[in-house]
Write a structure and sequence with these properties.
Blueprint lengths: L2 H10 L1 H42 L3 H12 L3 H37 L2 H59 L10
Helix pairs in contact: 2-4, 2-5, 3-4, 3-5, 4-5
Length: about 180
Amino acid sequence: MLPNEIINSLLNSVFFYIFVGIVFLIVILLIVRFTKKKKLNERIINGQYNINELKSHPYVLDIAKLDAIAKVNQEAYDTSLQCKKDYDSIGENIKSAIELLQDANENLEIGDYKTGSTNMDQFDSIYASTKQLSEKLDEMLASFLNQEAMQRKKINELKNQFHQIKNVVNENPNYYTYCWE
């Protein structure tokens, strides 16, 4: 048989077309699998970035400042309790989200992309609620801490005014003394 006859017999054979179809199907499945893997990996990396962003906020310092204000202000005390409760919820949500990220990463490593995607969907819902709670906590803390900062600014202005008046009096003691005799 000549090479042309072999090629013609293969092209006329049904098995050749079945073989080409199977190879084509395998290539498509590999491309789909690679795409799912890449997409899941990107979601995990993005999730890790988002969680680190939430974890890096200095809520503890702001809550400590609010506690100091709460010692003299009942409204601040109630807000402080609510802020602590929200902070604890944020911490629990972050722990849950980290566990889901770890599970998704394990699923990625073993090739179970469907379960990994499900874990990331759960992560996304927890992250969204945590982000919303975080923004609410930021607003509550900012409102009270801004009030405190404005009061501190006013106090500093009054102190500066007092020191200026005191310096004027000390420079000219004869003008500002009075005797009740």
